[in-house]
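Hey, resending since the last one bounced:
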Amino acid sequence: MDEHAWLTERFEEQRPRLRAVAMKLLGSLSEADDAVQETWLRLTRADRDDVANLGGFLTTVVTRVALNMLRARRREEPWDVRVPDPVVTPESGADPEHEAVLGDAVGLALLVVLEELAPAERVAFVLHDLFAVPFEEIAPMLDRSPAAARQLASRARRRVRGQEVTPDPDPGRQRAVVDAFFGAARRGDLAGLVAVLDPDVVLRADGGPAGKRPTFALRGADAVAGQAITGERFAPYVHPALVNGAAGVVVAAKGRLLSVMGFTVAHGRIVAIDVLWDPDRLADLDLSRWTAAERDAAP
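The structure tokens again:
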């Protein structure tokens, strides 16, 4: 086996983990793939004699690439609500390609919380808390000392724990609550909607920076229920799916993808709804299995 073939094989062994790291750092499947591809290009240009630990080298490179992308995004995308790219799979379960990206129950709501962290905080928290990378290895990636990297992760952890909700682990119970939500929306049943919503429920809707659709956030059962009533005409075009491993839906009509909605359900009520309906980002998602079934329907 020649050197290039050997290197390609070793890189492909690392690709699932690199993609998972990049996805959790960036919250975007397309950007994660770009970061992994850039990592491969940098590997091919590197001096092999300087790569004693291939896995560590690749993690460092993909992290630095992602960190630069996060910083650039902060400069270019000033809007307040950003819903990360959802990982959408059939309710029968995730396919092998998505399993590594999903990781251990990293839901959409947690990724939304990560979007609120500063880039360096996000890197320190994700690498240490989600991938068990030691602070001694994280520090050079951030040009910080190990103690400073530890402080970044600690600050991020406090923010995450202050907002994170542990979802119901039973998919069936999650789905029953989500179904009750849409059933009440179809009936125009405001009281029924409020009954399945946590009093402090938050709804985040990301329409994208181009302003093609509204971007907003609502908090409180009454406000979220009122918004659901106004959108009840789309209820017949809701299709169950797993969104980042939890109960969610794809909204599609006449072969056209309208939105993806992720739900966080805890203690029998919905505590968070995250909606991606930015048409530009939706176009990058491969959701043909849902849209194909709707080509003859009309909203």
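The two ends are 56 Å apart (CA to CA).

Sorry for the duplicate.
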